[in-house]
Amino acid sequence: MANRRLAPASEQPESFAFSPENAEWAKTQIAKYPEGRQASAVISLLWRAQEQNGGWLPRAAIEAVAAELGMPNIRVLEVATFYTMFALEPVGRFWIQVCGTVPCDSCGARGLKEMLQARLGPPGHVSADGTFSWLEVECLGACCNAPMVQINQDYYEDLTPESLGQLMDDLAAGRPVKVGSQTGRVSSEPQGAVNTLTDPTLFDGSRVGAWRKRFEEAGKVETPAAQTGEAASGTQQAAENPKPARPDVGRPIERPASDAPAQRAANGETPVKAEDRADAAERGRSTAKHGSARPGDADVLDSPAKRVAEGEPAAGDQGHQDVPARDAVPQQPEASGASAGEVAAEAEEARIAGALAALPKDASPERKADAVGKRPPGLDAARVGKPDDLTRITGVGPGNSQRLNGLGIYHFDQIAAWSRDEITWVGTYLAFPGRIDRENWVGQAKALSAPAQ
Ligand code: FES
């Protein structure tokens, strides 16, 4: 790590003042910030002071900037000593900052430092002819092309001790040098050969054009010639401005509890949002009805899930609650792409949504929970007056811990023993269906209640 001390007193100038031109420039920088926020200009002013002083910041310049901005000296000193872009000691005509952070270190930065030490002496030391000085600094953000150095304001990357030595020779002699990678890499492309994303059609627009053409042709085949009006404009819009695929398709994502159908039903809202009805109806056909019904059967279409999806009461006209049995094996949709677990979870979600939708909007949490699951047995009080700290279960905060205590749940082993119906009951009672499973409360409780080995 770089030594961040001010230069010795013998090297410090007596005073520092901005040149008239720089003083004027400083005023414009300070004027960019609202009254009382002039300190925000500290880095720009320090940088300009460093440039004016030949590439390093003496104490007097730091104090002059502090006075200009109405800041305590120590605050400006903190900034100047934190950022290695500010040199605190005199530097050579070419100031070499060598990155010594892990990626550069693993790729050979130590060799660069050894070479500089041998050629120039210790860090901070200016070479006898005043041409070079060097310093080790932390990551300069060019890790992909490690190891690298910054010389004055340019980056030189993919270095070896030899190529850095050659670079220094060229700089000292005034010969032109190449900034960036010294091995010919362009930007941060792979070492050696570029062997991915090499197909030019990815970049010339032809691939996107072909896809769009196919899309438009498919639209023509599927759409009768007489199609007009809104539908035609929809097809046109889809071709020109296709919507992205649903982001959660095929991926296990955590749906916010407040957006789940059962949650919406628990809140007295329509369980399935209008825009989701088509999807829900499709799922209802596949999963909500048990037995031998196939997707598309008419009686399947009369399921509670389907009625819920269409915004109707799940129980139908006669108040009959046609809710599938909890132990019903959901039918696997054909070629849906969903796993058996996802299908079962969706069927369970539809079952709960249907059951909750059949209740009055102001039903109590207990009544809602009773409609979908089974209340777990509770205790009158914690055993020996010592409840477990349920907040050790990830997902159980102090509030939920209290509510669980209110149900007579005080100990990890009680939660560890919850059945599927009891999990559903508690999840509905606490108004966050599915979360107990997602956070694996039961598994956590089992681990916490297991006797220490
Ligand atoms: S580690 Fe050296 S530039 Fe990032």
Automatic annotation (TrEMBL):
Keywords: 2Fe-2S, Iron, Iron-sulfur, Metal-binding. It holds the Pfam family 2Fe-2S_thioredx. Its cofactor is [2Fe-2S] cluster. InterPro entries: NuoE-like (IPR002023), NuoE_dom (IPR042128), NuoE_N (IPR041921), Thioredoxin-like_sf (IPR036249). Residues 180-199 have a biased composition (Polar residues). Residues 179-200, 218-397 are annotated as: Disordered. Signal peptide: none annotated. It comes from the Bacteria. Residues 334-344 have a biased composition (Low complexity). Residues 243-257, 272-285, 363-373 have a biased composition (Basic and acidic residues). Belongs to the complex I 24 kDa subunit family. This is NADH-quinone oxidoreductase subunit E.
